[in-house]
Structure formats: structure tokens, C-alpha cells
Amino acid sequence: MKRLSNFLIPLFFIGGVGWMLPHPIAYAFKRADGTTTFTQPPFLVAASTPYPEAEAWNTTYFFTLDIPVNAGEPLQRVTFTQTEGSEPIRFDLKAFHAFEGTRKHQGPKLTLQPPTKGDRSSQQISVTFDPPVPPGKTVTIALQTIRNPLFDGIYLFGVTAFPPGEQAVGQFIGYGRLQFYRDVND
Predict the structure, then answer these.
(1) Whole-model pTM above 0.85?
(2) Could you give the domains of the chain?
(3) Any residues with CB less than 8 A from the CB of 56 and at least 6 apart, and which?
(4) CB 173, CB 44: distance < 8 Å
């Protein structure tokens, strides 16, 4: 009997303390008012363009996001708000696309809901995944432009991620920074 108690006492202690330790799997956080948020929000990994020349036509801006395994909710929608730059950038909303992976290591295509929305007055664009992207994925959103800005310089885009739901609360996940250059021979 003594051997059994020597085995059970540590087992009960570990089991009793185990619930107090952080768990690797988190669950969605639903607030009392019915809104839903990420437990651990996605984060912006990179923003880039293969053509950083001012005035270049039909270029694409790539924004890569990681959705943590413990996000608690899938990624439904992402908004991009131009917050800095000497002129507003115009996008071809019908040419947006998204895929798993990064710009240089593209995986399967992801479906975006049509139409993708844009608001020129607030310089904000919204992209909605259909279906939402589950936690544990890296995704890249490709925003097609009509033309790069006429003026060189730094352009910033605030990026906000939203989980699914009618009352989803967006979480700001960073600034995508793009720098455009004027050809020195101009």
C-alpha cells in the first residue's frame, strides 16, 4: 500500500498544479457584449513589392501575415489603411488575390469574397477570406495597383485583422512599409 501512495501522491500533485500552467491551445475570447476577438492576434511578417520604382504600372504589394496556432479564431478579414505617403495609391480591386505561404514560397490559393471593398476617402481597403483562414497558417495578400505613386518616398499601410462574426473586433497588427525610388537618370 505504501508503494501505491508513493506513486499516487505525486500524480495528484502534478494533476492539481497542471491546470494552473499555461495551456498551448487557447480559445476565442467572447466578451460579455457579444463581441469576438483573437486570443492571440495574427502578426504582420512582411510588406514588399518587386517593383519599387515610382510611377511603375500594374505592380503588386505583398503583405504576409502569420496566424498563431493559439489565435483562438480563424482570420476572416484584413483592412489596409494608407497612413503615410505623399499621394493616395489607387488599387485594382478586381485583381487582388491571396495564398498560403510567402511571396517567394507560394502555396495554395485562398478564396477572397467578391467584391473586395475600397474606400478612397479614408484610403482603406478591406479583404475578406471565404472561408476564413484557420490558425497555424502563414498567408500572403497580394494587392494589385493601377500605378505606383508619382513621388518617391516611404508609404505606410496600417494593417488590422478581424476574426469571423457579426461583432468581430479588429486588432491592429502593424504597419506595412513600402519605399519607392525615382530612377537617378530621370
Answers:
(1) no
(2) 42-180 (2.60.40.1290)
(3) 147, 148
(4) yes
